[in-house]
């Protein structure tokens, strides 16, 4: 079933990357007839389906890391247009694969992130996918089909979801949409891989990563495929890697000056988190215990961080709290590349004198451990302290609001959430928490208004409209609140009508 799932993904994402393969120069990228707006809208439609699937990793810390890495690459790329949007996300899938969608959406399987032995290797894969987007590979393919495959591509998103629970259903969708078109595209898309390699290497260099990372990762995958013909890494099935292509990458990097690039602590923590989230909780716990016992790690603090996450998954909360103390002791003793410093507001992790994602990740984990062990007051103190240091860390923001609600402090939670929404207008989770706060306070009109914003930002306009209509039937809103709901209802109705006409 998992192999078939990857075939479906490959079919859907063959656009800019998955089927992408080899090509020299393809001419002016502006020659593609599909507009950036059309690409983005198609990508958004597909993402609605992917976000609704259980494999979608709705984790703000992992997403933040991937987007920070992606921004570092795109901001240093001369190929990326200033108006080009990118969004990087992860899927909980142990297979090694990555893909690009229309409109700059890029997905990375957890298995690929874990398999990357250095941050430069992960950046190499990401740079390759970015190149597919900047070179308009998908737009060219769609243009070659006279734009007729747009609906087929969108329909394939449904096939991805269907295949996870019913392979036959997924296959039916595939046959009815794209099966014949895929084979006809293979020769054309193979050419794209070579161009994506060439452009990706330049992006990697410009962002100051080790360019050998791309060739090292691909070479290791090729060896794995050679020894395991029937179980070759999924990335090779979706990104065919020929000897000629690998030789070309190696030739381009052979003359380059050696560049030693240290992995960021963020990269190490994200990989540890993903390892802790894989498989059965008990197995994950055991794997970390063995590695810690045998000292098979390069960074003890990182290993203990992952161990605590695995313990929380296994509901061993008391043990997790004990390990949290060991983690902080390890940090204070300076036994890792992380160092802990005292702060007048509390503790925070610093790396090379800079506040980074790593510190916020550890404090978020600490607060979560305290909540699971019933130490609500201490958890709230950790959140307040950490938010003064990392005010834009979404996991801390969501965690603090949730903890306040759990502690029956709905008014305090609502004030905090409303303040955050002034800074971040499109945070779906904040609107969900806002709706919960209003529900706890008995404000039904505002509750449904907030829930409508959740649906609207997910692209479910009809559901949002229904929520606003329910809100108008509530009898606890004042004149200004009623006016606001009515105005938003008219706006969403107009958006829904415009969407139907496209």
Keywords summarizing the entry:
single chain; 502 residues; mainly alpha; Serine Threonine Protein Phosphatase 5, Tetratricopeptide repeat; two-stranded antiparallel sheet; 5 strands; flat
Structure, described:
- It is built from 24 helices and five strands.
- The protein has 502 residues and is mainly α.
- The strands form two sheets. A three-stranded mixed sheet has the order 1-3-2, sandwiched between helices.
- Strand 4 and strand 5 form a beta hairpin.
- Helix 10 (212-227) packs antiparallel against helix 12 (243-254).
- The longest helix is centred in the middle third of the chain and has 28 residues, at 179-206.
| Total helical elements | 24
Largest sheet at a glance?
3 strands, mixed
What is the radius of gyration?
24 Å
Return the structural class. Answer: mainly alpha
> Which descriptor suits the 3D outline?
flat
Taking the alpha carbons of the first and last residues, their distance comes to 35 Å
Strand content: under 5%
Give the ordered list of helices and strands: HHHEEEHHHHHHHHHHHHHEEHHHHHHHH
State mean pLDDT (0 to 100 scale). Answer: 79
List segments where confidence is low: pLDDT < 50 over at least 5 consecutive residues: 1-32, 160-171, 173-188, 226-232, 339-355
Range of helix content: 55-70%
Count of spatially separate domains: 3
């Amino acid at each position: 079933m998992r192999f078939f799932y990857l075939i479906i993904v490959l079919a859907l994402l063959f656009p800019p990357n998955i089927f992408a393969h080899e090509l020299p120069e393809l001419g002016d990228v502006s020659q593609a007839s599909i507009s950036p707006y059309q690409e983005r809208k198609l990508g958004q439609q597909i993402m609605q389906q992917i976000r609704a699937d259980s494999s979608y990793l709705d984790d703000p810390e992992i997403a933040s890391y991937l987007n920070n890495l992606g921004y570092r690459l795109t901001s240093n790329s001369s190929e990326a247009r200033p108006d080009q949007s990118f969004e990087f996300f992860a899927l909980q899938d142990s297979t090694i694969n990555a893909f690009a969608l229309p409109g700059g959406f890029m997905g990375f399987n957890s298995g690929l992130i874990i398999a990357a032995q250095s941050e430069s290797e992960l950046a190499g894969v990401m740079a390759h996918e970015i190149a597919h987007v900047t070179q308009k590979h998908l737009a060219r393919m769609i243009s070659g089909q006279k734009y007729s495959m747009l609906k087929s591509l969108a329909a394939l998103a449904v096939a991805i979801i269907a295949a996870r629970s019913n392979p036959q259903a997924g296959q039916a969708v595939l046959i009815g949409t794209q099966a014949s078109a895929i084979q006809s595209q293979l020769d054309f898309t193979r050419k794209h891989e070579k161009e994506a390699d060439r452009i990706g290497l330049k992006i990697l260099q410009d962002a100051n990563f080790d360019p050998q990372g791309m060739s090292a990762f691909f070479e290791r995958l090729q060896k794995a495929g050679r020894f395991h013909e029937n179980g070759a890494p999924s990335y090779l099935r979706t990104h065919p890697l020929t000897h000629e292509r690998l030789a070309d990458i190696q030739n381009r990097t052979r003359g380059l000056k050696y560049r030693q690039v240290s992995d960021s602590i963020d990269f190490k923590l994200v990989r540890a988190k993903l390892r802790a989230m894989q498989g059965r909780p008990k197995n994950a716990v055991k794997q970390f215990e063995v590695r810690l016992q045998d000292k098979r790690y390069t960074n003890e603090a990182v290993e203990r961080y992952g161990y605590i996450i695995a313990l929380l998954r296994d509901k061993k909360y008391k043990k997790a709290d004990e390990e949290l103390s060991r983690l902080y002791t390890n940090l204070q003793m300076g036994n890792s590349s992380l160092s802990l410093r005292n702060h007048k507001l509390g503790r925070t992790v610093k790396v090379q004198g800079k506040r980074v994602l790593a510190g916020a990740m550890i404090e978020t984990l600490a607060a979560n451990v305290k909540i699971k062990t019933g130490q609500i007051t201490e958890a709230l103190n950790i959140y307040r302290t950490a938010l003064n240091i990392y005010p834009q860390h979404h996991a801390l923001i969501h965690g603090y609001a949730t903890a306040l609600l759990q502690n029956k402090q709905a008014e305090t939670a609502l004030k905090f959430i409303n303040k955050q929404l002034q800074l971040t207008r499109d945070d779906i989770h904040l609107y969900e928490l806002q709706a919960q706060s209003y529900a706890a306070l008995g404000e039904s009109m505002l509750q449904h208004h907030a829930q409508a914003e959740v649906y609207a930002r997910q692209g479910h306009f009809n559901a949002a409209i229904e929520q606003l209509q329910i809100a108008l039937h509530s009898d606890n809103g004042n004149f200004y609140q009623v006016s606001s709901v009515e105005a938003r209802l008219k706006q969403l109705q107009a958006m829904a009508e415009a969407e139907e006409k496209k």
